[in-house]
Write a structure and sequence with these properties.
Arylamine N-acetyltransferase fold, eight-stranded antiparallel sheet, single chain, 2 domains, 13 strands
């Protein structure tokens, strides 16, 4: 029932099989149906590392999630279908920050005819899984690259200014990520603490709301606007999430507006 409910949530109507077509189809369907978002912490709730919580939030409540939730649910579903899946740890922007962030991102590896990377977690990444091998490729005009750093580390280069991440192939239990999961929700320097983010990947681009900034990149045409009114913020949020959050939108808007104002003040003082 979990698999059936999940496939319905992502609008995937094919019969799942342990093959490449199913793997690619489910990955693309999830990516374009479920938004990447970190709104729970900005609503005074925690993002929980728990298989049941992932399913409850994304399937039953029709919400999105951040990397632990999105990739956590996907890898669990793939296992339920019968795929051979390994959860591994990654480190966002390791080339700048070193290894202290190791485990701040969860990635899945799937073994079929070869080993594939499955990763929904950064919102603006590839629509499809990709082979675990050094390569460069393009998707709808977005350029990606996977680099072998040494005998342990791989580096995925995302498109544009979206961050890279380094990962290993060592298996990790879900509980292993708890330290970073807590840190990302509580550290005052965390991107997730300082920005409320919602990203919806489309088949020809993405839409990204970060506090009061809304970016659309469709068919390689990029537009950016600063949201000034709560009504506009609520409309964009509803379009990205596929539902109305009711009174919680005001809480999110007030926080986004306050953080944006503080950043503008800091930039003015520095200039």
């Amino acid at each position: 029932m979990l698999v059936a409910s999940y496939l319905d949530r992502i609008n995937y109507s094919e019969t799942p099989r342990v093959d490449k077509n199913t793997l690619y189809g489910i990955h693309r369907a999830h990516m374009t149906a479920v938004p990447y978002e970190n709104l729970e912490m900005h609503l005074g709730r925690k993002h929980i590392l728990d298989e049941k919580a992932f399913a409850t939030k994304i399937i039953e409540k029709n919400r999105g999630g951040w990397c632990f939730e999105m990739n956590g649910l996907l890898t669990n579903i793939l296992k339920q279908i019968g795929f051979e899946v390994t959860r591994v740890a990654s480190c966002i922007e390791r080339e700048k920050r070193g290894d202290e962030g190791f485990g701040n991102h969860l990635v899945g590896l799937v073994d079929l005819d070869k080993r594939y990377v499955v990763d929904l977690g950064l919102g603006r990444g590839p629509l499809s899984p990709y082979p675990l091998e050094e390569r460069e490729w393009s998707e709808e005009g977005f350029q990606f690259r996977l680099e072998r750093l040494d005998d342990r580390w791989w580096r995925f280069h995302n498109h544009e200014d979206w961050p890279s991440h380094d990962f290993t192939e060592e298996p990790r239990d879900l509980t292993w990520f708890q330290k970073q999961c807590t840190k990302l929700q509580t550290n005052t320097l965390s991107t997730f603490v300082n920005w409320a983010i919602v990203i919806l990947r489309t088949r020809n681009g993405f839409e990204c709301l970060t506090d009061t900034e809304f970016i659309q990149n469709i068919d390689n045409t990029k537009t950016k606007e600063t949201i000034q009114e709560q009504a506009d913020y609520a409309k964009i949020m509803r379009g990205l999430l596929g539902q109305d959050l009711g009174d919680e939108v005001q809480t999110l808007w007030m926080g986004a507006k306050e953080r944006s104002h503080r950043r503008a003040q800091a930039e003015a003082e520095d200039s």
